[in-house]
Amino acid sequence: MRKLPALAGLALALAACSGDAGRPRAEELRGPQIQPAMAKPGLVLQHLDGSPFDLKRETRGTLTFLFFGYTNCPDICPLHLANLAWAIRSLPAEERRNVRVVFVTTDPARDTPERLRSWVAQFDSSFMAVTGSPVALEVAQRALGMPPARREGELPGGYGVSHGAQLWAFTPDDSAHVVYPWGIKREDLAADLTRLSRIWPARP
After folding, report:
1. How far apart, in whole angstroms, are the C-alpha atoms of residue 33 and residue 103?
2. Phi, psi of 101 (to 5 degrees)
């Protein structure tokens, strides 16, 4: 009978050393969660050099942020990307290496490869821009349950494009558990970035 407390103490010690000890929980996240999670769709678009971009293959096992927008956007797109770049820079260097940001144009007529390349680079040189035909871009948006972008009224310097403003976060298990809306604070993004890959790591 006297050995029971010792065995109980050993069990507690083993539990404290388990892989789950100290792991953050999903309820600690500041972004809205999706229930159930969405599997990363099999989108195939184009790199700026014209070669195929396969979202699943090229971002497998990474923390990947996917955003649809256009370079002439006056507010939503530049602010979202600027906040995301700030949040990523707050991570340790070894964690930043496992983060991907993919910007998909919703205005392929004006967003030439040169324009896209220089525009995303002003936020972070690691950000990737991809394009595609109008049909392929519409298919990609519908695959995520988003309404396709549409050309709208004239703005100074040209027309505007209405598009979904959400920022998709695909964790290393290749699923989206969280989608960040327009207006999310950069401090909230930064706080979640330290947790997402630990809550949903890559599958073995």
Report:
1. 21
2. -125, 125
**What architecture is domain 27-151+159-199?**
3-Layer(aba) Sandwich (3.40)
Q: What's the CA gap between 56 and 96, in Å, rounded?
A: 19
Provide the H-helix boundaries in the chain.
Answer: 4-16, 55-59, 76-89, 93-96, 113-121, 134-143, 186-199
**Residue 97: CB atoms within 10 Å:** 11
pLDDT at 14 over 90: no
130 with 46: CB under 8 angstroms? yes
| β-bridge mates for residue 68, sequence order | 104
Which pLDDT value is given to residue 3? Answer: 42
pLDDT > 90 fraction of the chain, expressed in percent and rounded: 82
Cβ neighbours of residue 96 closer than 8 Å, sequence gap 6 or more = 88, 89, 126
**75-131 pLDDT tens trace:** 999 999 999 999 999 999 999 999 999 999 999 999 999 999 999 999 999 999 999
Question: Is residue 12's pLDDT more than 50?
Answer: no
Q: Give dist(CA 59, CA 163) in Å, integer.
A: 23
